[in-house]
Amino acid sequence: PFLKNLDDLSYPAYHLVDISKYRPSPHHVIRRPSVTMMVARGCPFKCTFCYVPYLFEGTYRTRSVDHVIGEIKQLIEKHGVKEIQFMDDLFGANKRWLEQFLDKIIEEKIDITWSCLTRIDVMDWELAKKMKKAGCWCIFFGMESLDQEVLNAIDKRQTVEQIENAIKACKKVGIQIRANFILGSPTETPEKARKMIKKLCRLNPDYVKFNVMTPYPGTIIYEQVVKEGKWGKLIEEYDEDKLTNHEVVFIPFGYKNAEEILEMRKYAFRKYYFRPRYVLSRVGKIRTWYDVKRNFRGLKLKSKRY
After folding, report:
1. CA gap 41, 297 in Å, rounded
2. pLDDT in tens, 211-242
3. Among 287, 302, 213, 203, residue whose Cα is nearest residue 249
4. Which residues face 181 on adjacent strands?
5. Which of 48, 163, 164, 207 is a Cys-bridge partner for 178, taking CB atoms 3.0 to 4.6 Å apart?
6. Any alpha helices (H) in 83-216, and if so which ranges?
């Protein structure tokens, strides 16, 4: 059975590793040394493509604020940690918990920068302002699409307007935005995808990730496709080795074949990242020598791949 009280778990044995040797990917942190941390388990939402509700049987459990703050203080005092990446599937789903966490960070003047993954519909300007004050510099949003029909088909329970407002709120207070999008989703067509990418360029988040729709066994969309014949079809070579979010295993009715989806993914990356406006916006955010190095590393990786 699942552990009901996550505070019963001891803190990770950080003394057994040299944290300074861990090198994060470009653009994931702004200060080092850094570590990752989990605050909660599960997610209360049920997006059709997501395996998390299946994995955690629809439960959502959170460590107490004091337990998390205690670990952060230990990391700072004993290991010199300056930044934390909160890797919860959904950080701050409990807004009361999040407010208490932010208050503690601010009141105790804890010197830590951090990033997290959360949903669009929990974000507003007041919350973004408070998160920024508490040390948050970047938020990873699962936006998935800028087409309302697609969002409804995957049961995302958010609107395009909410996405736009969240981006504006974060930009207003100076929080960087990482955005995840899924190409090849139910009801999507190449025309819709190109229109979405054009709009995304206008909104201009700091980083964008384009995955392809991957129906994992056990997810709602997998059942819809396999048992109901809904949305599209799985490829004949569908197997576990291809469930990477980068290889096409599902072809929605709006696309001809897997090659068309992969070409759209390449188009999306090129269209977004090779814009003069994007390049200038990234240059404008460079403040330190570490920023120079991490941007250069990121540019090399992107150029090699695309």
Report:
1. 32
2. 999 999 999 999 999 999 999 999 988 888 88
3. 213
4. 144, 210
5. 207
6. 95-107, 125-133, 148-153, 160-173, 190-203
